[in-house]
Amino acid sequence: MEIFVGCSSSEDVDSIYLESARELGKIIAENGHTLVFDSSDKGMMGELYRGVKENGGKVISVFPNN
User: Fold this and answer.
1) Across the chain, which distance is largest between two alpha carbons, in Å?
2) Beta-carbon neighbour count of residue 16 at 10 Å?
3) Cα separation of 57 and 47, whole Å?
4) Which end of the chain is more exposed for a tag (fewer CB within 10 A), N or C?
5) What pLDDT is stored for residue 65 in this prediction?
6) Alpha-carbon distance 48 to 18, whole Å?
7) Is the dihedral of CA 7, 13, 16, 21 positive or negative?
8) Which of the four pLDDT bands, split at 50, 70 and 90, describes residue 51?
9) 23-43 pLDDT, tens per residue?
10) Rounded to an integer, what distance in angstroms lies between the CA atom of residue 13 and that of residue 32?
11) How far apart are CA 49 and CA 21, in angstroms?
């Protein structure tokens, strides 16, 4: 399953949210799903990405066209 997640890319976020984002990424990867996200490596988005990749998951990055 491909799962889209949109969340903060701000680095001014409480650590509990950063930890939760990384844990969500881990859960996505461990269950064989693919993360679809907006390609930020900062804040919650970055932690989510790292959680997926560190656990062998697949990521599809999208770049919004404004």
Assistant:
1) 33
2) 8
3) 13
4) C
5) 66
6) 8
7) positive
8) very high
9) 999 999 999 999 998 878 899
10) 28
11) 9
